[in-house]
Every structure is written in structure tokens, then in C-alpha cells.
Fold this sequence. Notes:
By secondary structure, this protein is an all-alpha fold. It has helices spanning 2-28, 36-53, 59-66, 69-95, 101-111, 123-163, 165-168, 174-183, 189-210, 226-243, 252-269, 288-299, 309-320, 324-333, 364-388, 394-400. It has two domains: 2-146, no CATH class; 164-400, no CATH class.
Amino acid sequence: MFIFQLLGLIVGLVLTVGTLGSVIRTVIVPRATASRLSAILSAAVSGALGQLARTRKDFLRRDEILAQGAPLFLVLRLVVWIGLLVVGFTLLFWGSGSLSLAGSLRLSASSVLPLGLAHAQSGLTTAIAFLESASGVIVVALQISYLPSLYSSFNRRETLVTMLDSSSGSPPWGPEVLARHALIDNQDHLADLYHDWEQWAADIAESHTSYATLLYFRSPEPRTSWILAVLACMDAASMHLALNPLTAPATARPFLRMGIVCLRSIARVTSVPYIADPMPDDPIQLTFGEFAEAAARMEAVGWEAERTVEEAWPHFRGWRVNYEAVAYQLAVLIDAPPGPWSGGRRGRLESSMIPVRPPHRAPSAEAQRLMKVTRRRQAYRSGMKRTVSPASDPAELDDVSDQPLRGGGDSAP
């Protein structure tokens, strides 16, 4: 009997220390640290809800199920932590030799919060009960204080994602971001957009690796997602640099590099594999036909490219090869909406949803006046381009921009 009690004492001590270590690594340590307990519980919750959601073909109904995953995980994790503390301290009470196994369980369950339903009878059990009460209160308090930080990061993330809806629609799509800015002759705003998203990517790289639960919190709008939003902005910047190397904003390249860092940081936390140094001519899933179709969609609303589609494609592919595979795998991991240029999804699901552009309902006379003003602005900018860069030969333009694709050029991560 003494041997079993000693074994129970050892197991209880290991279980208690391991549980408290999981709490500290998850809630307190401000960096990406692995907690096996959280990983197992997260896989169980996401796996169960994912299997249920994949039986729905309509994504809106599927999203309703998946949206419960992250909150359910937080509640279950707290319950599991408390449960493991009860089991661990039960074994410590029993191993001390002063209580039966049933009495130890009753005292442990009473002390963890504490409820006061049972009382310790000796000095040793009183000390153990005090430690359990302190541990239980600390775990609950840390979880409560953890939630405001979690939701603060979530709100910061979703603010910019929601703002993107006016520039891209839902689900977000890179070519549509450029097309809508061209449609209203507002390409100058793209420099600020890339700058804002560079800061956003840096914030996400810090917060979503420290608190990986945030990855699974879904956007309030079911047709969008943080991964689709950043992928759309990165595609917009890549297309901008590929099609317009002379006039693309200087903020596009820093944003793309920060976006790549962000996605790869999250990939390391979620164990998503990626190639750290891909070659610019490595294959990507997006086809040239899809790229050309998107470029034609932009040209139809007034986008003026400095390169042909054929000339721009190698440069665009040189950028996208750095982030496409990671973004696609993360989209599958969190079961993001089936947006264009975002890869496939598991289970039965409708095809990718192209964002619908709102109709232009201005009065005909006002619309004509606005179109004249727009053409004047575009003509003025074209004149400025010729003044700054008199070279108009496409081959010469290709020589002076984006040198080379690798080793400091467009595709350098």
C-alpha cells in the first residue's frame, strides 16, 4: 500500500506541476511557446467541429458551426486545467497517507476553487489544500485576465480587415483592390493601404504567435477572414509591382516582406511546412490564365499598366512563390471562406466566391463630369510619367526595374 501511495504522490506532483506549467506557457509567457495540452485539446475541438462543418455544402451554415470552435476551446481548456488540478491534488492528498482515495477526491474538489465543502484534518493536508486553493484561484484569474488581451488583439485585427471590404468586397481579392482604386481614380491611396497593412502584419506576427488561439477566431462577416484579407493585399502589392514597376508605391515592397515574415511566423507555430528560400521560377498553383483574366478585369475599369501581362507574370510569380503555399495551407487549417486565389478547401463546398462590385448610381450628368475629371487626372499623371521617365520602350522599361528577381530583387523574401 505504501508503494502505491508513493507512486500516487509522484504522479500527482508531476500532473500538478505539468498543468501549472501549461498555464504559464499559454497565458503568461509573451512568446510562441508550445503547450502539448493546448495543442491536443485544440486538435480535438477543431477536428470534431470540422468534421461536422464539412457535412454542410453552404459555407454560411458551415461558418456558423466553425465560429463556435475558438470560444468552446477556451472554456474547455479552463475546465481541463481545473480537472487536472483536482486529479493531481487528489493523488497528493491520498499519497500523504492521511485520507482515503474517496476522501482525498472530496477534499481536492472542495479546495480547488475553494468551496469549503470539506476541511483538512492535519497539518500536511492543510498545507496541500492551501496550495490547491491558491493554484485554482490563480488559474481562473489568469484565464479571466487573458481574455481582454485576446479580444483586444482580435479587435485590432478585424478593424483593418473590415475596412478592406470597401476596397475589395467580400471575400477580399487582390485584383479587385486595384480595380476599385482605379475605378474611382484613387491609386494614390494604395501607398497608405500598403503602409497600414505592413503595421497590421507586424502586429499579427507578434500577437497571433503568442496567442495562437486567435488564429481560429473567425471574422464577424462570414465571407471574409484575416488570412484572405492579408493574401488579397499581398496579391495587390505583387500585381502593382509587377505591372507598374516605375510608379508602384515605395511602401509595397516593405509590406510584402513583412507579410511574408508574418505568414512564416504563424506557419512555424502551427507546424505548417514551407520552403524558406524558393526560386522565383518555382511553380505556383495560380495559373497565368487566371492572372491575365484578373489583369484584364483591372484594365476594363481604367488601370494603366506599364508592362504587358506576359512581361509582368514572371515578376508576379517571383513574389507569390514566397507566400502562396503558406497562405493556402493556413486557409485550409482555419477553414477560411472559399475566396478567389486562396486554394481549395476540405469537404463538400461551393466554388470560390468572386466579390460583387457595387453598381455606380450617380446621375448621368454628374457621372459624365466625373469621368472628364478622371481622364484629366490620368492624362496629367501620364504626362508626369513621361517627364520623369522618357523611356517608353517596354524592353528598356524591363531593364531598369525590378533587378533581379532573386538576391535583393522583387522575389527576395
